[in-house]
Design goal:
Layout lengths: L2 H5 L3 H24 L5 H23 L12 H30 L13 H5 L1
């Protein structure tokens, strides 16, 4: 299912499409459980279609205008999100190196003494 087609539908048509896709997904899952079909690719595709539909419905609810950047986000908002997403990665990378160096500085554990088992005593 194409996202552009979904964006051109009205709210009522989107709701109808959502019900229809969920119904198809239910039937396919039921058939899978009963052993009548093995169409995992169809189920995967339907799940993705439902997710696309929910995304478009949420865009309409928030009033997000779709820009031509290919991601479905306005260009200014996309740049803001990329900057915000990059900042936590730098902090996480710095904290993970501290943990690695701290782990290396710990003294090595001493080896446990081997105990003699009853079987070994008999020999």
């Amino acid at each position: 299912m194409d996202v552009e087609k979904l964006r051109n539908l009205t709210d009522a048509e989107l709701d109808h499409q959502r019900r229809e896709l969920n119904d198809q997904l239910f039937r396919l899952k039921f058939q899978l459980k009963m052993g009548q079909t093995e169409s995992l690719n169809k189920i995967r595709g339907l799940r993705k279609d439902v997710a696309r539909l929910h995304t478009v419905m949420r865009e309409k609810q928030l009033g997000i205008a779709v820009a031509g950047n290919g991601n479905g986000q306005p260009a200014a908002e996309a740049a803001h999100i990329e900057k915000a997403a990059a900042a936590p990665r730098k902090k996480a990378a710095a904290s993970s190196t501290k943990k690695k160096t701290a782990a290396r500085s710990k003294p090595a554990k001493t080896a446990k003494k081997k105990t003699v088992t009853a079987k070994a005593r008999k020999k």
